[in-house]
Amino acid sequence: MPRKVIVTCAITGGNSAVLAKHPNIPKTPSQIAEAALDAAKAGAAVVHIHVREPDTGAPSNRFELYEQVVKKLRDAATDVIINLTCGMDGTIAN
Question: pTM of the prediction?
């Protein structure tokens, strides 16, 4: 019997140290959403989303950045599961 596999893709990682390792990590909501859509097209069933400050790439918990990413993913009519982080100290700034 074939094994079923669920692929989850963490789009940006949660900390700022990632930027030093990979300078092309998506930073803007549009870039994050596009990377998530690319992951879905490549077979990911779930995309795990952390947002970043668009100018600096620093981790963020600003509600409007999450809102922009989610809107773009929903507008694309993909069936990927959107998993927003519950990290970032458990608070959402708005």
Answer: 0.85
